[in-house]
Amino acid sequence: MNKGYLIAHVTVSDPVAYSEYAQAAGEAMQDFNPKIIAWSGQYENLEGESHERHVVFEFASFAEAKRFYESPKYQAARSIRAGAATGTFVLIEGADL
Predict the structure, then answer these.
(1) Which of 9, 32, 34, 80 is 20 to 30 A from 72, comparing alpha carbons?
(2) Global confidence as pTM
């Protein structure tokens, strides 16, 4: 089974509320145990809309990544983020090479 990845590109407009989101999202992730592949740090925007933060989480499968995103705990966290940041969130299935 291929891994699943959640990739997020985010620009924060309200750091205090975003911090609350990050705490709630971290708690929601505990049930799914993703591996952090990349977390902000140095980046270069080559094309498209630019965001200030970037993160890639690896899950056991695409279905597991989707279950996390759709989970009640994460959706509650997501509601906190709604007024604190804008961004793009993508789920992608890993390649079987």
Answers:
(1) 9
(2) 0.89
What does the H/E/C string look like for the chain?
Answer: CCCEEEEEEEEECCHHHHHHHHHHHHHHHCCCCCEEEEECCCCCCCCCCCCCEEEEEEECCHHHHHHHHHCHHHHHHHHHHCCCEEEEEEEEECCCC
Instruction: Please identify which residue in the block is written with the tokens 């993703």.
Output: 34
Q: What is the CA radius of gyration of the chain?
A: 13
Per mean pLDDT, which range of 32-36, 40-44, 46-50, 53-57 is the poorest?
Answer: 40-44
Structure tokens at 41: 């740090």
**Dihedral sign, Cα of residue 78, residue 34, residue 38, residue 90:** negative
Residue 90 neighbours by CB distance under 10 Å:
10
pLDDT tens-digit map of 46-81: 999 899 999 999 999 999 999 999 999 999 999 999
Query: Which strand ranges, in their side-by-side order, compose the sheet holding 53-59?
Result: 35-39, 53-59, 4-12, 85-93
